[in-house]
Design brief:
This protein has 134 residues and is mainly beta. The protein has a single domain (2-130), classed as Elongation Factor Tu (Ef-tu), domain 3. Helices cover 8% and strands 43% of the residues. It has 1 helix and 11 strands; from the N terminus they run E-E-E-E-E-E-E-H-E-E-E-E.
């Protein structure tokens, strides 16, 4: 079961969320500089933390509005450290990723009048960075 917890509160997420950028990053960071004489200095090191994790559900992954409210509550705390457990039982210590926009999003399944509280949502996107302990 996919879940997100801070040790006190656990949010169960849909198991059908896909880690869309699992292999879309380099585990090595690189700094390249030119010397005044035209030489090349390349420094490389392994990334220890800060791996981006973007979980995404498509059009057919439905969930409740209550789930979004739970995520919004936990995401409203700055620096909140969480444990993300994926459906394959891998665990990651994470924080919400905020440097490229909102850390999560979703849209109503049906667009209706504002007064109608449509309970079903779709296209959930959750963005995290791994942190020490991962």
């Amino acid at each position: 079961m996919t879940s997100l917890t801070d040790g006190t509160t656990t949010i169960n997420l849909p198991d059908s969320l896909e880690w869309e950028n699992e292999f879309d990053y380099s585990p090595i960071t690189q700094d390249v500089k030119r010397t005044i004489g035209g030489g090349l200095i390349i420094q490389e090191a392994a990334l220890l933390h800060g791996i981006p994790i973007t979980l995404q559900g498509g059009e057919n992954v439905w969930f409740s509005r209550q789930l979004i409210k739970q995520i919004a509550t936990i995401a409203s705390v700055a620096g909140k450290e969480l444990v993300l457990t994926l459906s394959d039982e891998r665990e990651f210590n994470v924080v919400f990723r905020r440097d490229d926009g909102t850390p999560f999003s979703a849209v109503p399944l049906w667009r209706k009048n504002v007064q109608v509280d449509a309970d079903k949502m779709k296209r959930l996107v959750l963005k995290f960075y791994t942190i020490e302990g991962s």
